[in-house]
Design the sequence.
């Protein structure tokens, strides 16, 4: 019997997603992250938006209620993590969050986007839809091509 590599890959992808989902519980609120919890959260959560923020930042405070609403609306689809740059300067530095709010998007543990500034809710919804629809096989293929060309 001849096996189909595409079917095998799809089966493996679905199995991995089930494994990830079994570890990560849906969150109806943004999750505060620290240096200790950040990597595990990224690795074990299928789709993540990280908000690098600070209490004194007006745009950060303006976006916070929007992120809280979206955490409820996208519960089980997109997880929102928050990193207080004052409490976690090493993470802010590692991810280049020199202007805040800075947002990083991760899917299946891979960074897939970064943007800076306070956005309205419709912009976040568009970003979430793009993250959900993002084909990670294409992302991995492009990453491999970049490795080979470098």
Sequence:
């Amino acid at each position: 019997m001849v096996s189909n590599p595409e079917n095998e890959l799809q089966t493996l992808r679905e199995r991995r997603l089930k494994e990830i989902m079994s570890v990560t519980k849906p969150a109806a609120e943004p999750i505060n992250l620290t240096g200790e919890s950040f990597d595990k959260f990224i690795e074990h959560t299928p789709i993540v938006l990280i908000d690098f923020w600070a209490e004194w930042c007006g745009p950060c405070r303006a976006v916070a209620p929007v992120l809280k609403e979206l955490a409820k609306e996208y519960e089980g689809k997109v997880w929102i993590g928050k990193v207080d740059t004052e409490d976690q300067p090493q993470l802010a530095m590692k991810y280049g969050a020199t202007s805040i709010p800075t947002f990083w998007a991760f899917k299946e543990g891979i960074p897939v986007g970064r943007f800076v500034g306070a956005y309205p809710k419709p912009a976040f919804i568009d970003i979430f839809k793009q993250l959900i629809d993002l084909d990670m096989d294409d992302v991995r293929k492009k990453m491999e091509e970049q490795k080979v060309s470098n």
Remarks:
- The domain at 23-145 is CATH 3.40.30.10 (Glutaredoxin).
- DSSP finds six helices and five strands in the chain.
